[in-house]
Write a structure and sequence with these properties.
single chain; about 280 residues; alpha/beta; Rossmann fold; nine-stranded mixed sheet; 9 helices; 9 strands
């Protein structure tokens, strides 16, 4: 598939770029960003995909996290897609709120009108974007890791748990751990998937963890959470994920950090540890 280069520049010995392409699954143009480390000059390198949260685009992680310096040292390629479809005719929250619609795709396949025509971010992340990345950049499709923040943490956990053969490492920052019990998740999934909550279970990390039966390729799932996160109790609920992983036999490491909130200063503080975590598991 043809991609359009919007910008590209040198960065820590590698290069960082922003790109656009016509998406079949989302029926609109989509954007994504890629950091290619200097080690790619010698062959294909492992890939870590970062899924961003509410209100974000393909730019936030690349601009704010400070990940490129560390990724360059570890030889990791970084990929960050946009968080939703966009463009003329793509529906948005009718009330103009930030927690559904544009920049709030929730990494699912919508089944309800008018959302179902465009909002198919699950298929975009798992089916359409990977071949575009591996056809145009020197990433190794057999060495993929997945991480994300907030809504994107929900996306990382649900996609990673549903596609264990696709990814070899999995982590999240302050994820929405249960869409079934989060006001953000209840609103979005109610619109995208309809009122039958049984249809929501494939997009709820706790439900997926419980029914995993302990069968997983991940030796450890790393989750970092700020103790001073304003969304901790109402929206994120990591204690429910901890209980679900214990019930399902999944190896979760949940780290709660005093004094940290929900923002990118929190991500920037711990991104080096997450990148090292993934690099160790993505070595050949």
């Amino acid at each position: 598939m043809t991609i359009e280069r919007l910008s590209e520049t040198r960065c820590f010995g590698g290069r960082i770029g922003f790109y656009r392409h016509a998406s079949t699954v989302n029926d609109c143009d989509m954007r994504f960003s890629v950091f290619v480390p200097p080690q790619a000059a010698g062959g294909r390198v492992p890939v870590l995909t970062f899924l961003s949260g509410l209100t974000c685009t393909e730019e936030n992680f690349m601009v704010k996290s400070g990940a490129q310096r560390v990724a360059a040292g570890l030889g990791l390629m970084l990929v960050s897609p946009d968080t939703s479809p966009r463009g003329e005719g793509v529906p948005d929250d009718p009330d103009g709120d930030y927690d559904m619609g544009l920049a709030a795709g929730f990494y699912l396949n919508a089944t309800q009108a008018p959302w179902s025509r465009h909002y198919r971010m699950y298929d975009y992340v798992t089916k359409e974007l990977p071949p575009i990345v591996f056809d145009n950049f020197p990433g190794d499709a057999d060495r993929q890791g997945l991480t994300g923040h907030s809504m994107g943490g929900h996306g990382a956990l649900t996609i990673g748990l549903r596609n264990p053969g696709m990814y070899r490492s999995l982590s999240a920052f302050a994820p929405v751990c249960t869409t079934l019990h989060s006001p953000w998740g209840q609103k979005a999934l109610g619109h995208y998937l309809g009122g039958d909550r049984s249809a929501w279970r494939d997009y709820d990390a706790c439900e997926l963890a419980r029914r995993s039966g302990g069968v997983t390729p991940y030796d450890r799932i790393l989750v970092d959470q700020g103790a001073d996160d304003p969304y901790l109790k109402e929206q994120l609920k990591p204690e429910l994920l901890e209980a679900a992983c214990r019930e399902g036999g999944l190896p979760l490491e949940l780290r709660v950090h005093e004094g940290y909130d929900h923002g990118y200063y929190f991500i920037a503080t711990f991104i080096e540890e997450h990148l090292a975590f993934h690099a160790e598991r993505l070595r050949a």
